[in-house]
Amino acid sequence: MVSVRRVIALVVHVGASLATALFQLGASAAGASPREAESLTAASTPLAYFLHSKGPAAQPVIYLGWTLTIICVLVCVIIAGLLLIGMFRRRKPQDARALVSEGGLRLVYVGSVLSTIALFGIAVYMLSVLAEVADPSKTPGLTVTVTAYDWWWKVDYGDGESRFSTANELHIPSRVPVLVLLKSADVIHAFWVPELAGKTQTIPGTTNRQWIEADHPGVFRGQCTQYCGVQHAHMAFEVYAQTQADYDRWYAAQMGAAPARSTAQAIRGRKLFEGRCAGCHTVRGSKATGVQAPDLTHVLSRRLLAAGSVVNTPENLIDWIQHAQEIKPGTLMPDMKLSPAEAGDLSAYLATLK
Fold this sequence. Notes:
The protein contains 10 helices and 12 strands. The protein is an alpha+beta fold.
């Protein structure tokens, strides 16, 4: 018969193994390079956000996550221990009523009271965290509007003549609170940058609010976390936190119209684009004024394509145009049938959109 002491030792061993695994995960995340740890396409330490926060809106949330994880692990360990004890220290058949006659119900009463107190304390703690992250400590220095589409993100900056749009990238100055106005163009999505803030849904017909702030410059992954269709898993984006000077340079560059074409091939490519792509896409400074797909005025300044599906290179860009349904099945972007000459012309034009 297995003794209670051996059962307790087994439970402690399991808890120690779990703690060791979490420690090794943290060490792996700490030792990764910034590009490996924060790249959208990185496969290492996918849960690194559980161990590290990079902004004041995420810090209270990560503490809450740790607390709830510890409580859940303790509850599971205690229940497992009691279950093992019950399996190996069962009463004799003649003691079937001992639960009542020997006061065994006290354990039930005590457990119920402790569980109620613990759940009430958790609820109070969760509400206090929600209140703490509801508003930034100072007035936001920047306001952007993020609109979720199936399956990409539109980001609008500025007002009036200074207004411009980009896609699947959110650039912000570091150490500055940023107010994010969240909208949806079709179904319910959810905006989440785990290292910077919690989740907020985007709901058609409603404008929700979220604020984020990065403690230091860096690149942070964002993801839709509300199932929204076949390509939900490939609806990602990146947040680029930059120094104020770098952000100002990026902002000034993005406000400009598309550069002038410099070659005959690029001019032919522009005419092809305006004839076959302008119904959905915009390129400022051209006849392309579509609003149902990403603004491509400075498309080559972005690191990734198709909401994080592929790295943005001239070769991948033309491959995406011709084989969108192979790369991201179900996307609203159709495959474009191009001859080799047309593909070369269009590539030459798109190469100017930096």
